[in-house]
Amino acid sequence: MADGSDRYDAVNVGQMQNGVNYAIDQSKAYTDQQITNINNGTSGMFQVNNTENLANPSATGANSAAGGVGSSAAGANATALGNGSQAQADNSVALGAGSVASRANTVSVGSAGAERAITNVADGSQAADAVNVRQLQASQQGTLRYDTNVNGTTNLNSVTLGSTATGPTTVRNVAAGTAGTDAVNVDQLKSGMSQTLDWSKAYTDERFNGFDRDLRKTENRASAGIASAMAVAALPQSTEAGRNMASVAAGSFNGESGIAVGISGVSEGGRWIYKFSGSTNSRGDGGVSVGAGIQW
């Protein structure tokens, strides 16, 4: 049979074989264009660059995946990407060479002593989102923080609220302090000040009352002393030579009283005169006096 030439002509086996080969070649060329073989240094959607015959990745966990020389995904549903990366726990992800994910449900981008920073992190907006440094710094401006020592360490014994630029800070909903080192609220402060004022007033009143009592007692004793002096002054004096006299007298002043007794005499020649007296009063105080004189 001759080769068909028109679109509706029959074809022989040779024509059909040539058509199949052509279709295969075209399909192969298209596939090679879309998927490049993964060889050292070749370009494509996924590349590796191995210069030695190194260990293959190992995905031993259920539904796990491993990519990279010597990578291991041992946990169930674990993923390890990067040379030597290890996703050891269930549902863990190890990203990057040498990364180790040893806790379940975690993503690790490094290992102990070989940590990595995650950059270009967008602001978190949901409760379970990660936050970036900008969000952290903004939140710390309104967060209670300990003071810093001169050497840069944290002083756990000192907390400063507010600043001189913004003014003092008001702390609300403070419970009543019970221990000696607890903070007190305004109600406690007012109550304490009121009690202190009451105690101070009571003490002052007591002291003033005591002072008044002492002053009144001193005044009464002074009045009694004046009454005793008046009684002593009222004692009569012997005037005749060679005669003696015993006498008694009383006095009263400002509600207090006093009484006095005395003995007086004149010598035979009338030249010497003497006098002795004693007194007591309504406050129980007593006194004595003696005197002598010479006349010529």
Instruction: Please compute the radius of gyration using only Cα atoms.
Output: 59 Å
CATH architectural name of the domain at 225-294:
2-Layer Sandwich
Shape, please?
Answer: rod-shaped
- Report low-confidence residues grouped into runs of 5 or more: 35-43
Strand order of the largest sheet: 1-3-5-7
Oligomer: single chain
CATH class of the domain at 225-294: Alpha Beta
By secondary-structure content and strand pairing, the structural class works out as alpha/beta
- How far apart the termini lie comes to 199 Å
CATH topology of the domain at 225-294: Pantoate--beta-alanine Ligase, Chain: A,domain 2
The share of residues in helices is: 25-40%
What do the pLDDT scores average to?
Answer: 85
Strand/helix succession: HEEEEEEEEHEEHEEEE
**CATH homologous group name of the domain at 225-294:** GSPII I/J protein-like
Quick one: how many beta strands? 14
Largest sheet: 4 strands, parallel
> In percent, how much strand structure appears in the residues?
15-25%
Q: What's the total helix number?
A: 3
